[in-house]
Each structure stands twice: as structure tokens, then as C-alpha cells.
Amino acid sequence: MPMILKRVDLAVIGGGPGSLAAAIRAKELGMENILVLERTDSLGGLLPQCIHNGFGIHYFGEDLTGPEYADRFIERISSMDIEVALKTMVIDLHPDLRIVGVNAEWGEFNCIPRAVVLAMGCREKTRSHTGIPGSRPAGILTAGTAQKLVNIEGYMPGEEFVILGAGDLGMIMARRLKLEGAQVKAVVERMPYVGGLIRNEVQCLHDFKIPLFLEHTVTNVFGEGRIRGVEIASLHDGRVTGENETTVECDCLLLSAGLIPENELSRKAGVELDSCTGGPFVDEHMQTNVAGIFATGNCLQVYDSVDNVSLDGQRAGEGVFRYVTGELKDHRPALRIVPGHNVKSVTPQRIVGREDVQLRVRVKRPLENTEIVAGTYTERHRALHPSSMLTINLSQADVADAWRNGRLVVSCCEDRGANL
What we know:
Blueprint: E1 4-13, H1 17-29, E2 34-37, H2 66-79, E3 83-85, E4 89-93, E5 99-103, E6 107-118, E7 122-124, H3 127-130, E8 140-142, H4 143-151, E9 160-164, H5 168-179, E10 183-189, H6 198-206, E11 212-214, E12 216-223, E13 227-236, E14 239-240, E15 246-249, E16 252-255, E17 259-261, H7 264-268, E18 293-295, H8 306-324, E19 335-339, E20 343-347, E21 350-351, E22 357-363, E23 367-374, E24 377-384, E25 390-394, H9 396-399, E26 407-413
Parallel strand pairs: 1-2, 1-6, 2-3, 6-18, 8-16, 9-10, 9-16, 10-11, 19-26
Antiparallel strand pairs: 4-5, 5-6, 7-17, 12-13, 13-14, 13-15, 19-21, 20-22, 22-25, 23-24, 23-26
Helix pairs in contact: 1-2, 1-8, 4-5, 5-6
């Protein structure tokens, strides 16, 4: 039986909010033959298991739950004659854009698109990333796995919980488990501040009186067949001090240790990755260094807001349309965008056109009375936090001088905003 060959204008790898926004926008602009490849049995990414609200405030002007937010995009996809292949695993992506995939209906197949959007999302860090010593009993799982068990499967993985990591998902799950009647004995965070949004710290931990231990970590795990407790110790300058060690009894340890952009396919295609974001280098059109390959969503960088994911997905869809119609030229001179003082990451990492651009900036640590500087652009802020992605809009006048040496540094200067 010959291998199926599909020729399309655009292939989108992934079925989350970024990919759906890209496919919809490309279709709106006139692209006809679009194929969305999703490895699970439904669209929406992780949104269906995020049953809390807080989605869509900026994009739709409404406060929606995750499933409600996803459903709006799924309805648009269904009404626009965009082909969707569920339960489809993409196993290879070549620099010439050829995709090799497999599913039950087509078997192993080839797809040759004119352009590709990478939107594979991200994965959670596991115990191996945290380096926690001790035994390996049942009851240690990531916060995302616990969220799926509770919200989708209707199964409680334990009764007494300790959560390592005060990221957004960890804090949201602390509240969710508390509402389900479980005891959340501690949320433990290595840093002197939470890794998630401040509103989640307030609404999920403080409002529910869940103990938060900053500058602490789990240093041991007890139990054989099932976890029965953990050891928590304080940190100084990121190192265990040997003081204030406490044993906490629990039957479940959730890990909210961070997210890693999923980019194995990107590497296979020769896409250059940014060590600061973990995702591809892109220009303002969301195009990578490989012509015709674009990136968006959490495989590009870990976002703090699904609204921004959708907005950047739209930008990728517009970039794809301009590329396919020949408006975007290859190998043009680029203005390199570099993270400067107190800035952890910036996307896009380069500018290739002479239009106004929008940057997503993340700072390294909590800052007060500070000023963002990029070329001649300056903007003062009373407070900035690493968990909140800052959006700045640059005009061509702001970056005109930077084109002379091909480099634009984005910095965060604390002293210049002292009189706010």
C-alpha cells in the first residue's frame, strides 16, 4: 500500500490556542488548504482541564473558564472548513518542510506544506529535573497530571498534599485540592518570591489560608510503596543551610517545577533555539531561521496568559500568509534584539522589516520603580515581576539608531524610575 501524500498550503503542528489562532487568521486572510495536526483526541491543548476562570479577559473582553475559551476557537475552526487530524503524531519535520506523521486512519504519511506553524506547547519538569533525593514511592506526580486526574477523570490522587513550586499551576491546584476537601499542608518555593502571578498567590493561597514557604525546598522523600512524608529545609542563596528542617506527613507530592517548551521537531528541522526562552528564535512575523517555518504558543516561550498566546498565534497566521504570497523575503538584514540589564528574555529576537513591532519582555526578578529602555523608547513601571510578561510597542523611530550597528538592547533600569 503506497504511503499517503498530502499537499497543503499550511500545516499547523499542535491543536492548542496558539495553533488554532494561527490557522483561523491564515484562513481569514485567504489561505484555503490548511491542516491542523493534533496528537490527542481533542483540540484546545490543556485548556479543557483548566476549569478555573481568568481566561479571555483581554482577547474576548470576558472572564471565561479554560473550556469556554477553547470552545470559541474550536467552533470557529469547525465553521471555516479547516481540516483537523486528531490522534495524529508528527514524528519528523525536515528542513524542506516535509512532515512525516502517523495515525490510525492514514497510517504513516507524508505532508508537504508551503509553510509550517510550530505550536507543540510545552511539558512539565519532572522529579529528575528537581534532584530530590530519597525513595521512589507512588504518589509523586506533576501538578498538570494531578489537574487532569481531578478535573477530567474525577479522581483524587491523595488526601494530604505538599506542592513543590509556587508556579501558577501549582498554586491553582492547591486551591482546587482544597475545594475538593483535601489537606494542602504546604506550598514550597525555592525562590524568595512566587513563580506565578501575584493574583494567584492571593486568590489561591492567601484567601484559602494555605501555608507558603518561600526560600525552602524538599530535601528528602519518605515511603516505600506509597509516599508518607517529605523533608522541607530552608535555603540561603539557593543552598540548603541544614537549619529549620521539618518533616511533613503527606500521601502525595505535586511538582510544579516549571515548564519546558517542546522543540524536538524544531531541532530536527534545523530551527535555531534561544537558550533564554527555550524556544525558537523568531522575527516579528514569528518566522524562524528556516524559511517557511513559523513558531507560536508555549513551544516558542512559556506564556503567562492564554490571551497573549492567541494574539501571537494570530501574528504567526499573518506572517504565514505574507510568506506564502511572497511578501516576506528571505535572507534580509536583521536587527538583533538582545536582553540587557535585569531582562531575562525578549521575543521576537530579531526585526527584519521597517514596521512598528511589538515585543514580549520578561524580567529576571521582582523590581520596583523601574524603567524599560529599548532604543529611544522608555516606559516607567511601579512594579514588574518575572511571572508577568510585559508587552511594549516600538515604532520605527524608536529603533532607527539601532539599525546602524544591527543590535537593539532591551534593559530594565531601576534607578531611572526612582521618582515615580
